[in-house]
Design brief:
The chain is of the alpha/beta class. It has three domains: 176 residues, FAD/NAD(P)-binding domain (3-Layer(bba) Sandwich); 115 residues, FAD/NAD(P)-binding domain (3-Layer(bba) Sandwich); 80 residues, FAD/NAD-linked reductase, C-terminal dimerisation domain (Enolase-like, domain 1, 2-Layer Sandwich), CATH 3.30.390. The protein contains twelve helices and 26 strands. Helix 5 links the parallel strand 10 and strand 11. It binds flavin-adenine dinucleotide.
Length: 411
């Protein structure tokens, strides 16, 4: 690769940092510029709603690389810098201060941003979101002084924050519009497990709750009013109602965008020199035969290697089985696979569901689409193999803990 070749990575989160690492590992010796609008060097977000928020993990444990890594690997890391526009035809990016930067190939790793609550009063102080390290600091501080909070949204972030608040001794009213938390991602069978988990930990969980207004006094939130007129008093309101991919740059440049930057299995966009990875990428997945956008850590960790290799002109495809995890109270779980809402016809349990030590499988036509291990460990490899195989599996054997999963997966 000639020395004047520049690979530009926009977005210095996990995906951006891993792409820089992979480029060097793959032997790229051209220039790498990694630009991020946050002032922190690249860090991982899962601890922000878990160990770091709980106070059990220190700040230096969240970073992707040691501070010296970027200089040591000749990566030009520019923090506190926003890319305002890209011009794929001219191979140029424009920074917010007007500086122009030429590049040979571009990786969009711009991630995603929290969806904002669009009700009256939502812009008051004390209405908090969780995406960045300083958001986690602010919530941690709030939990130290608050006696009660309202959490809006029963998704992964809302539930993890709820668990952290309860661990801090704070009363929580959890407000979820659907009839159960996590309903769209897990379906009712497993959503109920999480609803019960939080009820058992003293959470005032209200499902089917429509937030109509954030109430407040002197510009500071003091509670929530629901559409049915119910009033909930709260010292702070923490909102976790999903995220939206940061596609503005791609869209303005005329790249194909549809629920993320559309990329092929090689993670190449509709422009041949522009790639995307992580939360922002809606990538064609060869195993699933369709495009999916995955908003999870493992995807941001692993896609960049494929993007980097692809940028170097080698023919590779990203086809890993999607994976994510959560920790809430004493429940740890891992999920491998992918199920569209309502796309399964059977859920099979193996183990002790009431004791929350089990594996659940989602099946369609006898084929395993996904598996989730709850407080059971070292089973993701056979679960992945089951999902990947696409073979029909006997449900009774799947439910029988005496039959090793490896045997069913044909390992
Ligand atoms: C609190 C929290 C807890 C989580 N917990 C889990 C978990 O338990 N399990 C799991 O699987 N996943 C979890 N996730 C999801 C996981 O963290 C994300 O999938 C991952 O961070 C995505 O990485 P990314 O690099 O694609 O994007 P991001 O982490 O969003 O990074 C993108 C970066 O690009 C920057 N950027 C955007 N536009 C520009 C621009 N124009 N110029 C310069 N910079 C720009 C952004 O500021 C950001 O720093 C969690 C997320 C959060 C917020």
């Amino acid at each position: 690769m000639p020395e004047d070749v520049t690979f530009l990575i926009v977005g210095a989160g996990l995906a951006g940092a891993k792409a820089a690492e992979s480029l060097r590992e793959e032997g790229f010796d051209g220039r790498i510029v990694l630009i991020g609008e946050e002032t922190e060097r690249p860090y991982e977000r899962p601890p922000l709603s878990k160990g770091y928020l709980l106070g059990t993990a220190e700040r230096d444990t969240i970073y992707v690389h040691p501070e010296t890594w970027y200089a040591e690997h000749d990566v030009d890391l520019r923090l506190g810098t926003t890319v305002a526009g890209i011009d794929p035809t001219g191979h140029q990016a424009t920074l917010a201060d007007g500086t122009r930067l030429g590049y040979t190939k571009l990786l969009l790793a711009t991630g995603s941003s929290p969806r904002r609550l669009g009700v009256p009063g939502a812009d008051q102080d004390g209405v908090l979101y969780l995406r960045r390290a300083q958001d986690s600091d602010q919530i941690k501080q709030t939990l130290q002084s608050a006696s009660r909070v309202a959490v809006v949204g029963g998704g992964w972030i809302g539930l993890e924050v709820t668990a952290a608040a309860r661990a801090a001794g704070v009363e929580v009213t959890l407000l979820e519009a659907a009839r159960l938390p996590l309903l769209a991602v897990l379906g009712p069978e497993l959503a109920e497990v999480f609803a019960e988990l939080h009820r058992e930990h003293g959470v005032d969980a209200r499902f089917g709750a429509q937030v109509a207004e954030i109430t407040g006094a002197a510009g500071r939130a003091d509670g929530v009013r629901l559409a049915d007129g119910a009033r909930i008093a709260a010292d702070a309101v923490i909102v976790g109602i999903g995220i939206a991919p940061n596609t503005r740059l791609a869209g303005a440049a005329g790249l194909k965008v549809d629920n993320g930057v559309l990329v092929d299995a090689q993670l190449r966009s509709s422009d041949p020199d522009t790639y995307a990875a992580g939360d922002v990428a809606n990538a064609f997945h060869p195993l699933l035969g369709r495009s999916i956008r995955v908003e999870h850590w493992a995807n941001a960790l692993n896609q960049p290697k494929v993007a980097a290799t692809s940028m170097l002109g080698r023919d590779v495809a990203y086809d890993r089985v999607p994976y994510f995890f959560t920790d809430q109270y004493d429940l740890g779980m891992e999920y491998s696979g992918y199920v569209e809402p309502g796309a399964y016809d059977q859920v099979v349990f193996r183990g002790d569901v009431a004791g929350r030590e089990f594996v659940a499988f989602w099946l369609a036509g006898g084929q395993v689409l996904a598996g989730m291990n709850v407080n059971v460990w070292d089973v993701t490899d056979p679960i992945r193999a089951l999902v990947r195989s696409g073979r029909g599996v006997d449900a009774a054997a799947l439910a029988d803990p005496a039959i090793p999963l490896e045997e069913l997966a044909g390992d």
